[in-house]
User: Fold this.
Amino acid sequence: MSTQVSEMSIQLSDKINQLKASATLAMAAKARELRAEGKDIIGLSLGEPDFNTPDFIKDAAIQAVKDNYNSYTPVDGYVELKDAIITKFKRDNNLKYDRSQIVVSTGAKQSLYNVAQVYLNPGDEVILPCPYWVSYSDIVKLAEGVPVEVKTSIENDFKMTGEQLEKAITPKTKMIWYSSPCNPSGSIYSKEELRALADVLQKYPDIIVVSDEIYEHINYVGDHASMAQFDDMYDRTVTVNGVAKAFAMTGWRIGYIGAPQAIARACNKMQGQVTSGANCIAQRAVITALEAPVSKIQYMVEEFKNRRKLILDLLAEIPGFECNEPEGAFYVFPDVSYYFGKTINDTLVKNASDFSMFLLEHANVATVTGDAFGNGNCIRISYAASTEQIKEALDRIKKAVS
Ligand code: PMP
Ligand code: GLU
Assistant:
């Protein structure tokens, strides 16, 4: 019997064939591959802090191993973790949730996936202000929903106005998803800007808001506003958060929601059939992370702030990179359409994907095309990298395009 596996005989589902691979993860994999071939690639594609998880969190995990936390966890999270999340929501966001409204998941990505699966029926529309985080549209499509992109402009700091929202709403609109601070634009919705959106939604009581606040603490301008803080929005907002970014815990895979009880219960049921409860050791470590004062992770935010200035200053020296000033997260999202139609280094650049590929091949710098975020004029550059890497990368980009 042949041991060779025939790829030809396997017919995958339409669903998986139609699913796009995550562009951020694909670019990170490509950079890894090129490095393995010996190329000196600087990876500015992945939104991943270059810090290690703080020691006080690692210690909690080691203790959890020693304390024999090794059994299946409750599907929606340990009670102690849910309580730490409840305290965090109250402390940082003045939001009051009870245990029945909290669900802990294997990363905020799973939290978002759950919400789409439990709330959307085929054909339901989800409004996504562009640029949006790369996985939103495919998570919606996996739930047979229809992403409705709302274009925003750099002049308005890539934020959706109430007027734009109103225009995008149809009888099929079921949800609105956005991140603030935003991945990829770094924009932050002020309380007033959220209120303007909430005012429009008063006429549409069945629309649920998914407010992705995973970059909450990576904020360079001050206050963080949550949609659920408005009394009239609380019952129809799902607040998504997680520890990957601010606590440098991307690989630990813990995210969570505070949600209307019916949605939280449904998410619990959903992941009970798919993944069960999130990892036991990671959950114990996250209790310690969330119970700590936010000041304990401030050193990382300060460093990101320095790097933001550095990258904006360096980009300003290169023609054709038009940037908004990001207020949070750790990305810049320059409009590079200046280069479209031009031939640089014998390479014709037609669009943002070509430009991102050009930078990979001619500057050895990995970025992500803006198409993946619903804006084909831009590329995303992550500055969650060391200052040396940022300087070297921007120097290479400058040389490659000149
Ligand atoms: N939302 C946004 C806006 C993100 O950038 C990310 C990146 N990972 C996620 C959700 C998913 O986070 P997690 O790693 O916790 O799944
Ligand atoms: N959220 C990060 C990013 O946007 C991590 C990659 C991912 O989960 O897609 O780069």
Summary: The first helix runs from residue 14 to 18. Residues 22, 24-25, 46-48, 109, 134-135, 183 surround glutamic acid (ligand 2) (CB under 6 Å). The chain has a mean pLDDT of 95.
